[in-house]
Amino acid sequence: MKNPKTSNLQNAGSQNESAGPTAPQSLYLCYFDAEGSAIRQSFGCTGTQSHENDPGGIISDCLRHAIGRLNEHSRNMAVINSNEPESSVEMVEYKGIKRSYLVDRFPLLKMPEGGMLLSIRDVSAIFSVAGTDTSKDSGIGAGADPAADVFFVIDNKGDLTFLSPSVEMLTGYPVNELIGNPAIGISDPKAVETIASLKSAFSILIGKTGLSAADLRPLHYKLAFTRKDGAQRWVEISASPFTNASGEFHGIHGMIRDITDRKVKQDQIKTTLEHERELSEGKSRYISTVSHEFRTPLSIIYSNLQLLEKYRFELDQETIHDAFELSRMAVKSLLRLLDKVTIIDASGKGKLDFKPSEVKLGVICRKIVDEVNELEFVPDRIVLSIEDEDSVVWIDENLFRHIFINLLQNALNYSEKKQKVTFTIKQDTSGFVTFVVADQGIGIPEQDRQFIFEPFYRAGNSRQFKGSGLGLAVVNECLSLHKGRIFLDSEPGQGSTFTVILPIDINE
Ligand code: ADP
Q: Could you say which architecture CATH assigns to the domain 4-258?
């Protein structure tokens, strides 16, 4: 728009058409110079217009009609250069449609040439058309407007020269305080970044000659600020640059709208969507890990079956025994994996059975060590030491088994076959039993330690070892039902020590 004088109110309609029909909340902003010429106008500043709300464009037509009528008065006011802002609600009837408009006229006293900013908003949804008081003294002005949009004008030196009084309602700060320090209440780093980008867009315009329509299009920014009373709010700023009569950049006018409620709703929807995405990602991670872990033992069973089927008459007894033994171990490992999956699933649904009973420490711990030995190629690597074999604990035997089978299997898995693993059990006088599982294996890097109890998480140094990332999650679930705690001490390359502390009687 090189010559803004030609963009008078007659072609406002075509500009509006290109922007789409104007819906009830839409806004018309116009800046008049001191001679009453419309220097710059913009429609639907917040971009809230929607086609669905205005079938046939009749509301847009009504607004255009209202603009034609209401601009005339504003032009005169700009020439008279009144010092007082003026607000009124006007009812306009066009082709049988009645709509209410909130009209705000703000004299631009600080602009060297004077002038006026006019805003027209469709408030039909707020003020019932039939009951609207259309008198100019109705007292419904910017201050009483429930939407409390704030208008502003920045001159071509970058100084804020006008802020509508409704800014006090929005921010808690009076106009004069903000004119001197517009960034009051803005400390959020993202908001500061937004303002910096606004400023740089602005300086580009200052240096530019021959501004085009693209330079003058309205820009929309969202930013967070803190109200004077400490409340956090979100606003959308819509800013339109405008030119003087010779087409030179002359400043920016725009509107600030409180969008906190909308933002809160959007954030809630975003959180729900993110949660759903995480769930679906978790599901696919689950399927790929579990199916991978199933494949290895199944292929061991399959290849041994093939071997036995093809060569059963040629193989010696020892090879046949090994083939059966390998298949048996593969089946056991499949069952262990199924156990883990079932426990994680049941605990996620809050359906993990917890049936505690009195159990002798010595008996249960020896049983667990035997069970783990049976699952391993190299047995007898576990060195068990129990201070008092006969002491009795109140535990769910099945879940207790899962805790220590997982810890012991990990200790064996992540260390060399020639290295021992110690399993030490001590009882103290304050009603707790301490179980320590220690190995001299690969250790756990510090950055992974806080995540290893989450399902499917595997430390960076364990990729070449078999594992599903489910064992410690199972330990965690079983421990929490026992009101127990677990501590980890680990040094990469030196080994890991898991210490579990359980109350002797969880009922105490
Ligand atoms: P996995 O089946 O992969 O062993 P876990 O949930 O039992 O799953 O363990 C999670 C991860 O924690 C393992 O993948 C491994 O990176 C690490 N980890 C657990 N125990 C040990 C250990 N004793 N030594 C080294 N790393 C371990």
A: 2-Layer Sandwich (3.30)
